[in-house]
Amino acid sequence: MTLIEELARVHLAEACRLDPCLAIVEAGVADQDRLTDYGPDGTEERAGLASRTLMTLDRLPQTSDRDQLLAGFLRDRLGAQREFHASGEAGAELHNVATGPLQLTRQAVEAAIPAEDADPLAREAGWERVRMRMGELPAALAGYQQSLALAEAAGRVAAARQVEACREQCLRWASDGRNFADRYGRGPQRESLVHACDDAARAYAEFARFLRDVLAPRAQQQEEPFGPGRYRLWVRYFLDAELNLDELYSWGWEEFTRIEAELARETGRLDRDATAGEVIAQLDRTTAPDALRDPDAFRRWLQDFVDQNIQRLDGVHFAISAPLRRLECRIAPHGGVTYVGPSDNLARPGRIWWGIPADAAPPPVWRAYSFAYHEGVPGHHLQTGHQVCTGDWLTRHLGMLGGVAGHQEGWALYAERLMDELGYYTEPGARIGFLLSGLLRAARVVLDIGLHLQRPVPAGAGLLDDGPWTPALARQFLRDRCYKGTSAGFELARYLGRPAQALTYKIGERTWLEGRENIRRARGADFDLREFHATALNLDPLGLSQLRYALSHQAKAT
Known about the structure:
single chain, mainly alpha, 24 helices, 3 strands, 3% strand, globular
């Protein structure tokens, strides 16, 4: 082990101690009972760790190619963390997106739920860990509340939309009350789980009251763009400081119009006399005899589909190790669609959580195929699971440094596109679902940059106003051109509350595609797609700059 690798290992081991929620969710750490201290002291400790590691890094020699990549990644990520903390953004962060404190604490609890095929001893051990993490929730929320209160005193308060979305989420979790105890059922831990659920419900209710009584009165009613300074801070935090945002804005619009034209051609194959919107509405209204009427029926369909998909890809396009042939599909009562990787000991398999509210019907399956590829195989489950199965300790924990979303989400979006290239969207409407997914990801590049940097609305956007983007124009665009309907407001809140994260999908996919094309050109007739994927999956999870370097190195090595 080199000195650079040893420094990274020491840093990440301490990061696991200081940020257990991130260690559980990002690195699959299984033997952790605590949750993160999101209070002021915990936030300061994590910032101090970043500064100390950076000082040590500057004194160490680089002795290998991996050292060069790793040192650059450490310097980028820890510098971004330090800058983010110094700006006050870290202590004021409030939104309901999966990568924020509110959702990370919940995901850390859910990650402890034992596998469906766990033996009785493993099942009880898993539920004991759920109980212990649930017991930590009140303290985690109280610390988070302290940080937000300090930020409020300094004049940093999230917009009213974000405050209200988080308040509503907390009230839903509070009303769920004994959800975890009910999932456990009858058994020796039922009573202790009920107590932990009740304590957590009271903590969620208290946090909701704080949001209503303290933050909401100070929150801006109209969300404002972050502006160049703050926005570039978030772009660096999630992606890369060197990105050319003007070029990306133009490219995002080009991609949007390209995919929109392809969507029109695809919907025209189903009904040449109807618009794309009319065909999509027809597909949503279709009531086939085998339509899925309830969440459990959808879960069974999804489980069967991902199982069959793994079988048909294994040995043909990918070599999928035995532990990764297990992928659980579960229904969550709230939220969108998320993937949680397997635990580091592989006792818990990777999971797709599909959010379906109790009073809602499952989505039509034509919309689900691209999601299954994105979250499952060959997307997140294959990439993340491969790192757990074959990577060393350092590889499995590098994602905790942040800035790898372009690598990860880009790969998952690449996986959706790959399945189209391989001709797998054969089910009725499946390719339309894939194109809708790509259309939204391209729109995110345009809207995220356009809103926060006040870029002019592109000609051809179908909007009467040709001035700079506003939330109202963005909502209209999402509704009418991206077919988001009533969910346009939720999508918009994501860009306004968590800037730059929405860029990671499309920009990451672009990096993977450009890297593949460069290698294809360099190798000519000797290019082998399966070999490229094997090499890609063996890469450390790093930032976009390091990913570009690693892929270009592969092209030059031919």
